[in-house]
Write a structure and sequence with these properties.
This protein is an alpha+beta fold. The protein has seven helices and twelve strands. Strands 7, 8, 9, 10, 11 and 12 form a six-stranded antiparallel sheet that branches. A four-stranded mixed sheet has the order 1-2-4-5. Strand 7 and strand 8 form a beta hairpin.
């Protein structure tokens, strides 16, 4: 809970590179500071706001964005998570020339990346971060040599990756087990999938799809050595890592030692 400098800022400080942290780039005074840098190009990564046109026009070669999807699919704030939630088998990095729209600019380079059944939002983020780092270097080299071939996006193929909310990460056990398994992976490490047991919120960190069984959604069908089997609207989910308030993430076997769960209980019930 302490304000900490990012690795980028720390590295810049170590090398005597000035770091500017304006609250907004809309003010003319901040824009003048950027203008005086006389930059050839500006690179944007994980920046959650749209740059004003006045800023986009400052660098001689424009502004490049490292976007974590294969545009035009998943424009917006949460492309990594939305790809997992949708069941996509592939995503990637797009190096794009920024314009005044939301991730609508011309595409310069694309780097595909498979999404495996084991990927959560963190592991996929890390893979894409590596791709983006090498990709932007290649893009800058092409830009310097003039060897760039911008490609227009097809707006008809676009979809929007809305910002994540804690509310949407609440598990609805009436949904299909496949969809819920994706949710647990897609919402990790933020906002983390969450359910409730007798009024106590429980976070779900890891699960797998279980065997086909029918029961009231949310019902605990079995508490085994390595998992807690829960009925869904279609199929079952085997919960493997859980966390209670004030505790740390625990394997199912350890979790049930300190939290009384038994066959027949139901998640989602508030208790008396």
């Amino acid at each position: 809970m302490q304000l900490t400098a990012s690795p980028v800022k720390k590295l810049a400080s170590e090398h005597g590179i000035p770091v500017l942290q304006p609250a907004s780039l809309k003010s003319e005074s901040e824009q003048q500071i950027l203008l005086k840098l006389n930059a050839d190009v500006m690179v944007v990564a994980a920046y959650g706001l749209i740059l004003p046109a006045a800023v986009l026009n400052i660098p001689r070669l424009g502004c490049l964005n490292i976007h974590a999807s294969l545009l035009p699919r998943w424009r917006g704030a949460a492309p990594i998570q939305r790809a997992i939630l949708a069941g996509d088998t592939e995503t990637g990095i797009t190096i794009m020339q920024m314009d005044v729209g939301l991730d609508t600019g011309d595409m310069l380079l694309k780097y595909p990346c498979p999404i495996t059944a084991q990927d959560d939002a963190q592991t996929l983020h890390d893979k894409l971060a590596d791709l983006g780092a090498s990709g932007i270097v290649e893009a800058l080299q092409h830009l310097e040599s003039g060897n760039v071939h911008p490609q227009k996006q097809d707006d008809k193929e676009a979809c929007y990756a809305a910002k994540l909310s804690k509310q949407e990460a609440r598990i609805d056990w009436s949904l299909d087990a496949v969809e819920l398994e994706r949710a647990i992976r897609g919402y990790y490490p933020f906002p983390i999938a969450q359910t409730e047991f007798q009024g106590t919120p429980i976070k779900l960190m890891r699960a797998r799809i279980g065997l086909e069984e029918e029961a009231t959604p949310g019902t605990i069908l079995a508490v085994n050595k390595n998992e807690i089997i829960v009925a869904c609207g279609n199929g079952t989910l085997a919960l493997e890592v859980l966390q209670k308030p004030g505790g740390k993430p625990l394997p199912a076997a350890q979790f049930v030692q300190g939290f009384a769960l038994k066959t027949g209980d139901r998640f989602g019930e508030t208790g008396s």
